[in-house]
Design a protein that fits this description.
This protein is mainly alpha-helical. It is built from 6 helices and 3 strands. It has one domain: Orthogonal Bundle (Arc Repressor Mutant, subunit A), CATH 1.10.10. 68% of the residues lie in helices and 12% in strands.
């Protein structure tokens, strides 16, 4: 396969994943938080413990807006902060127990949708898909 064909297949795959992700995000919304706060919670759910500047960079938000939204999420007791052990001037942000529970509830809805979507796969097809996901992670995601 040529690099051009590989690139076209890759961009098609990325676009499909983007659409799939957007559909998943529709189920990952809570009435407790704004869309921007929801994005922050999803970011923390994926990254576990990260700095304010990392949240800002990942979500392409400016630091003042990020800090303001983090403060609101702290007041809602959905996240918590701790000092960065490497740099006491910085804070590490993570989901609180309440935040993890909320995300688990939201993801349970997504899991049901996933089960319905992939219920038609045979066990061999599901195993093949699992191997493909692992290959993508090993060869592409872990190299970025």
């Amino acid at each position: 396969m040529s690099k051009t064909t590989l690139f076209k297949n890759f961009t098609t795959f990325v676009n499909l994943i983007y659409g799939f992700t957007e559909n998943i995000k529709k189920d990952l919304k809570s009435d407790l938080v704004t869309p921007q706060q929801n994005e922050i919670l999803l970011c923390l759910n994926a990254n576990h413990e990260i700095s304010v500047s990392e949240v800002s960079g990942i979500l392409d938000l400016n630091l003042p807006n990020t800090s303001r939204e983090l403060k609101k999420l702290t007041e809602l007791e959905l996240i918590k902060k701790k000092p960065d052990p490497k740099d006491k001037r910085k804070s590490i942000i993570m989901l609180s127990d309440k935040g993890r529970m909320m995300m688990a509830e939201l993801f349970s809805v997504v899991e049901k949708d996933f089960d319905n979507t992939f219920a038609k796969l045979s066990e061999d097809e599901a195993l093949e898909l699992e191997k493909a996901f692992q290959l993508i992670e090993d060869k592409l995601i872990n190299k970025m």
